[in-house]
Design brief:
The chain has 22 helices and 33 strands. It is of the alpha+beta class and 819 residues long.
Length: 819
């Protein structure tokens, strides 16, 4: 401990010449200086009458609209859709349009598509070339079947042909006359396409074939859809490459789906002809389910099993209407169990939402226990943090092994139980349980973002995936504490730090198809950022208010990142430009080193007080020579001890003895002080405060608040949150002074692991020893005994490449040789 001398200093600051100030303003990163708090408005699009500087839609905001009437037929045997549709396109923009663009997403599976031609291959574990059985089967499927949209006719409403041009996954229709602002235009398209086997080809839709020969169809991105025309980008007609999803227009849908008579259909919207496709008992159950606070079977497991055995090939048409949606999807199967329950909400326009699930018997007992409850829970949680659910239905359909996909009012979700090979019993793991609940929450959450808050997924994946993953994790913790603790939860900062320190990153703001590590960049990192923003930077009250304002401002509209950033600041009153810049525009990470702490007491200047304290400190801090210690241990007596008459004044008074000169100097000090200065010095002597200087070094580059846990010598503690603005003058290293009435014995940075600090080993002072467990290993490794291997009996029913169920690589041989 040192004594800090109280003194008054006058600091003269140099005047900055205007030319120098201008140069620094232009060159923000010249030399070592980098302004982490530079305002973001210099980089965001200029506000205008469409999008205001506050982040709200402007008084001239506009967006296009497209209404659809579709008749589609599902040919189960041929695995094919045939359809005709009428589109009414409304030009609400101030621009005159000479052509229209539509999305043909199924063209991604065509042999010459950009997506197929640019697929890359990764090296094997040994660095050599490899091809998996999955890759081989996919290539064979694409060779055997012609995929992609087959356009039969494009005409106006009177049946006159319209010229069109297909460009990869897009189609341009040339209009016979320019479409003026405020006008609308109707046209028709007749088309067909083959349905992919999703488990082989991979994608967001297709069909699944079960071991008993039954099938389940989940159909999405299936019809020619209007591409978006926006105020910020014009036509959004970038080719669909698989990752960057969809930018679409709102409209009303009237869709008739013709399927085998034994099928049950789940679709966006409300069923219009229940009397034609459901039994009277099923209609009664559906009515009761809307009033029920727990799931009720509409189609029971026994009825679903009976449907599977149906042999009648008659067809039925299911008709659905969906209002003000940006897309339409459906699922159809003779395997579906169907349950539903009503979810009450504070919304006079939609007081009850019908939460529903559709799933095969293979999904039981997991799905009937959790799926519809997860749908209902999502609505209740998301309503609280955004707006009331605006549609009459919310559906979860079991379609594949894991993962999910979202569309208006309908979601496709994975996870099923497994059958034990020995006992034949059907059970489900914790991973399957929490995986199902989590994916349903995530995909139903997408009905809010981006199916209602209609962000541009083709450009900014994080605006739907990141925001939605953030709210999903809020819903996880409102489902149960430690939700899915056996799995990595991206809500926890510890889950993203390994990515943030890795090589080959790109900023969150990178266009969707260019993000190298898609999952962390689009989902986990923005979700972690928003969690930190809510829990640490802003606090829940300010964050929740601003987030709700953003959701309500942009409900049924198309926000950009600038609109989100500006709204969060506008509604909260908190300057967040430093946060957006660091987390969303850079690849910096958080690594703040609590480098050192220095302790002081305020010096009174009084030698009669300070000299004894200096003597005490010297006794603690200065060690006597080792030789002197050893002499004493051996009983050696010094000459002075043997001859005391050699002692004089200096042996009786050490350097810490106050002198009259010291006392006079103190008197002169007091006489030179102003009255308020003498009062402050006397107060310091009375209080006896401790003064600490704490050094922080920013090793990761990302400036963040400094959460500190301070521990005092008496065992008490204090939590202190230092705002990120402490870094505004120097983003690399700062020193914070603390004055406290008690002695500090320890300081810990980020004790609650809330700022995603990548290296917690430098977060405590004094430093701590990291504790862990070390496992032993055998030094001797097993060696191959080829002679013994050849004597092993060949197992029947197994192929030569490996046992059933393994993930296997196809053996490769040089050209001209058989593998």
């Amino acid at each position: 401990m040192a004594r800090l001398v109280a003194a008054i200093a006058l600091v003269l600051l140099p005047v900055l010449a205007p030319a120098t100030a201008l140069a620094d303003a232009v060159d923000q990163t010249k030399g070592d200086w980098k302004d982490k708090f530079r305002q973001l408005d210099v980089d965001l699009p200029t506000a205008n009458t469409y999008r205001t500087a506050s982040g709200a839609p402007g008084h001239e905001y506009w967006q296009q609209r497209a209404d659809y009437s579709i008749d589609v037929r599902l040919e189960v045997g041929a695995k094919r859709l045939t359809a005709r549709q009428t589109v009414r396109y409304h030009n609400n923009s101030p621009d005159t349009l000479r052509y229209l663009w539509l999305q043909l997403d199924q063209n991604i599976y065509k042999e010459g598509s950009i997506a197929e031609l640019t697929r890359t291959s990764s090296p094997g574990r040994d660095g050599g070339d490899q091809i998996s059985y999955d890759q081989l089967a996919r290539a064979q499927a694409l060779k055997d079947i012609r995929y992609g949209v087959e356009i039969a006719a494009v005409t106006d409403e009177g049946g006159r042909p319209l010229p069109y041009r297909v460009v990869d996954t897009m189609m341009r229709i040339d209009l016979p006359r320019p479409l003026a602002p405020g006008a609308s235009y109707g046209f028709k398209v007749e088309w067909a396409h083959n349905i992919i086997n999703e488990s082989v080809v991979g994608g967001r839709s297709g069909y699944e074939r079960f071991e008993n020969g039954t099938e389940l169809f989940f159909i999405a991105q299936w019809f020619p859809r209007m591409a978006a025309y926006t105020d910020y980008a014009g036509w959004q007609h970038k080719a669909f490459l698989g990752r960057g999803e969809f930018t679409l227009e709102f409209g009303d849908y009237d869709v008739s789906v013709t399927v085998p008579a034994d099928h049950i259909v789940s679709a966006s919207g409300e069923l219009q002809n229940a009397g034609d496709v459901l039994t009277s008992a099923q209609r009664d159950r559906l009515a009761r389910a809307a009033r029920s606070d727990q799931p009720i079977f509409i189609v029971t497991p026994d009825e679903a099993l009976a449907n599977e055995k149906e042999t009648d090939r008659a067809m039925k048409t299911w008709r659905f209407k969906a209002r003000n949606v940006r897309d339409f999807a459906f699922a159809s199967s003779n395997k579906f169990i169907w349950d539903a329950m009503g979810v009450k909400q504070d919304n006079p326009d939609q007081p009850t939402v019908l939460a529903m699930s559709f799933y095969p018997n293979e999904a039981e007992p997991l799905w009937s226990k959790y799926s519809t409850w997860a749908v209902a829970h999502t609505i209740q949680v998301y309503n609280k943090y955004s707006f009331p659910y605006p549609y009459p239905t919310a559906q979860s359909v079991n379609t594949w092994e894991s993962g999910g996909m979202e569309y208006p009012m309908i979601t496709f979700n994975g996870y099923r139980p497994s059958i034990d090979a020995k006992t034949g019993r059907r059970t489900y793991s914790a991973n399957a349980k929490y995986g199902l609940i989590g994916v349903v929450i995530h995909e139903v959450g997408h009905i809010y973002f981006p199916m209602v808050v209609n962000s541009d997924e083709r450009q900014w994946t994080w605006m739907d995936e990141g925001l939605n993953t953030f709210l999903q994790n809020v819903a996880h913790l409102e489902w149960e504490e430690n939700f899915g603790a056996h799995r990595r939860n991206p809500n926890l900062p510890a889950g993203i730090t390994s990515y943030m320190v890795s090589q080959g990153q790109v900023p969150i703001m990178t266009q969707s198809d260019s993000a190298l590590q898609f999952g962390p960049n689009a989902y986990a990192k923005p979700a972690t950022a928003l969690t930190i923003l809510r829990e640490t930077v802003m606090g829940r009250d300010l964050f929740d208010h601003a987030f709700r304002e953003y959701a309500r401002r942009w409900k049924f509209k198309r926000p950009t990142p600038a609109d989100f950033f500006r709204t969060m600041e506008d509604a909260s009153g908190v300057d967040l430009d430093w946060f957006w810049r660091g987390w969303f525009y850079t690849t910096d990470h958080v690594d703040i080193d609590l480098a050192s702490v220095r302790e002081y007491r305020i010096s009174t200047g009084n030698p009669d007080i300070e000299k004894p304290l200096d003597r005490e400190r010297a006794g603690r801090e200065v060690r006597e020579p080792l030789g002197q210690t050893r002499n004493r241990e051996q009983g050696l007596r010094t000459l002075l001890e043997r001859r005391p008459e050699l002692a004089d004044f200096y042996n009786e008074n050490d350097p810490f003895t106050p002198s009259n000169k010291d006392r006079n100097r103190f008197s002169d000090l007091l006489e030179g002080l102003e009255p308020w200065e003498r009062e402050a010095l006397a107060r310091a002597e009375k209080d006896g405060d401790w003064v600490y200087f704490i050094d922080f070094v920013n090793k990761g580059g990302l400036v963040m608040p400094l959460p500190l846990q301070i521990t005092y010598a008496d065992g008490t503690g204090e939590f202190l949150m230092i705002p990120a603005e402490i870094w505004r003058y120097d983003s690399k290293a700062v020193t914070r002074m603390l004055i406290r009435p008690k002695q500090v014995v320890g300081i810990e940075l980020d004790p609650r692991q809330e700022i995603a600090d990548a290296d917690p080993s430098n977060n405590a002072y004094p430093r701590r020893i990291a504790a862990s467990r070390l496992e032993l290993y055998k030094a001797k490794r097993d060696e191959q005994d080829m002679m013994a291997d050849m004597l092993v009996e060949l197992k029947a029913g197994k192929d030569a490449q490996g046992t059933e169920g393994e993930e296997r690589q196809v053996p490769l041989a040089p050209a001209g040789q058989q593998p």
